[in-house]
Structure formats: structure tokens, C-alpha cells
Amino acid sequence: MRLTLRQLSIFIAVADHGSTTAAAHAIALSQSAVSAALNDLEALLRTPLFDRVGKRLLINDSGRLLLPQARQVLDAATTIEQQFGPSGAGDATGLHIGSSTTIGTYVLPQILANLGVQSAPGIARVMVANSADVAQAVANFTVDVGLIEGTCQQPELHVEPWIIDELIIVCAPSHPLVDGKTHGKVTLDRMRETGWLLREPGSGTREAVQNALLPHLHVLRETGEFSNSEAIKHAAAAGMGVACLPRLVVADLIDMGKLVEIRTALPPMQRQFYLVHRKHKLLSARLSRFMNVCRRWNVQQ
Q1: What Rg value do the Cα atoms of the chain yield, rounded?
Q2: Cα(38)–Cα(25) distance, rounded to whole angstroms?
Q3: Which of 46, 105, 230, 277 is the most exposed place for a label (fewest CB within 10 A)?
Q4: 63: Cβ–Cβ under 8 A, 6 or more apart, which residues?
Q5: Are 164 and 299 in contact (CB under 8 A)?
Q6: How many CA atoms lie within 13 A of 273 on its CB side?
């Protein structure tokens, strides 16, 4: 077999960075070595993998066909190395974990603590982003596993239901909704008139909030859009609007009296968290252990 892991690694670097010069810098090789390896790969496959446009290399249809296969091969090779590494499966060393913002802020630190990572010098690498970006990173083999809040439609991913999360509606104690209750609950008409603080499109929290509220309210008057739930809850505490957020996110400000939970005529609101990994991915002992700790965390809570 003449195809090498080195050739595939260099091909991926060029695809990710758009030129042999940038790829060489990223993987600490000379530009001539990168160009030679890419030329050898194209000669071996008997097809160009990039269109040459000036100094840029734009991946073509053949390159796009090869790219996910190359990522999968290198991912499997990395997993084999980790499987038989000196530290075995006893910690999270070497894992690349993708997490949605809420999970990465409020849940994942506890899971990693359960793994005893404070005593492991080679800690896992964590990417925190919105759910859509995490799912795409899993599909691209950029991360080994994803912990997401929203639904996932990529057919190449294995999606496992995980934790049930409770959503509640909160606002500042001075907000007009606090005094606008009927029989102890805020009416749907009042909620349609109020201003809502929302996450950005692509966020699992925003998707969950819209799925929970729109069937009953039909419209959400947006008064602010934020890239994380921490900003939303503090904006709500400052009186900027009403927010629908996970209880675990707002519990601290409710305890401090800076937010109040609004009782409404809406049914209880919940959303599902998910564990996702690439179908046909070789699961190392470390990755399997991490996912089992995640599953037990759900039971323990």
C-alpha cells in the first residue's frame, strides 16, 4: 500500500488552510515538503484534489470526496495510539470534546471532575460553541464526541438522548409581568406583549425556547439577542426583558433575589440533551469511559 497517513494528514491541512504555505506553518513542515506530499498523493490517486487559483488551493469535487474519508482514517489511527498509550483509559487525556455553551458552562466541568482530571497532566481539550457548530465538528472528526442541547439532523452522526433539562421563565422583580398575574399566573396575552431576550440562531437553547413557546404564543417580540445564557440572565436581572432559560443557569440569581420565576398558563417545559459521535467511529477505551461517566451523571442527578 503506497498511501500513507502522512499524505492524508498533509492533504487535510491544505484543505483546512487553503494553501501549502499556510498548511506548512500549521503542521510545522516546510512548504516544499507539503507540496511534494500533496503532489505524490494526487499522482497516486491519478486525480487533482484542488483547483489552483493564484496562490490559493480550492478543494474540488474529488477532494471533497476524499476529505471525510481521510479524516476518518486519521481519527482511527489516533484512537489506536491512545488506546495503547502509557496511561490507558484511566483519564481524559487526549480526548477532544465538543460542548454546547450551556452544557460546557454548567454540566461538563462536573463530569470532568468525576473523571479525576485534576490529577491528569494531559487534560482533554474542550471546544465550547453552539449546538449546530458542535454537531458539525463531530461530523468533521474535529472533536471525538459532542454534548449538545438541540436536535441534530446529520445522518452521519449517532445521536443518543441524554439529560432532560427544565426550562423556566424569569424576569427582574421590578418587571411589569410580576404585577400582571391573573389567579397567580401570567396570562398568555401578557406574555405575547412582553419583550424576550433570546440566544443567537443555531443555539440549542434558542431552538428549545422557540419550540416550547411558539406553539402557544405564536410570536416572540425579541428585544435582545445574546451569544450566551449568562449574558441573557444578567440582562433579564437588569430589567431588559423576559427570558426562558434552564433552571440550572438561573438558580443562583433566583436565590439572590435578582430574578423571579414567572408562573404561567403554559405546560411544563423541558428539553433533551444529547450525546453525539460519528457513526462507525472507533471508540477508544478513554472515550467509552467518558461517555459512561456522562450517562451515570444523568442517573446521579
Answers
A1: 24
A2: 15
A3: 46
A4: 11, 15, 49, 50
A5: no
A6: 25
Cell representation of residue 31: 512548504
70: its cell numbers = 481521510
CA nearest 83: which of 289, 223, 291, 233?
289
Domains and CATH numbers, the chain: 5-83 (1.10.10.10), 96-163+273-300 (3.40.190.10), 164-271 (3.40.190.290)
* Sign of the alpha-carbon torsion through 51, 56, 57, 59: negative
Pair 196, 220: CB distance under 8 Å: yes
- Long-range contacts: 190-195, Cβ < 8 Å, 24+? 191/217, 191/242, 191/264, 192/217, 192/218, 192/219, 192/221, 193/221, 194/221, 194/241, 194/242, 195/221, 195/222, 195/223, 195/224, 195/240, 195/241, 195/242
* Cell numbers linked to 79: 484512537
pTM for this entry = 0.67
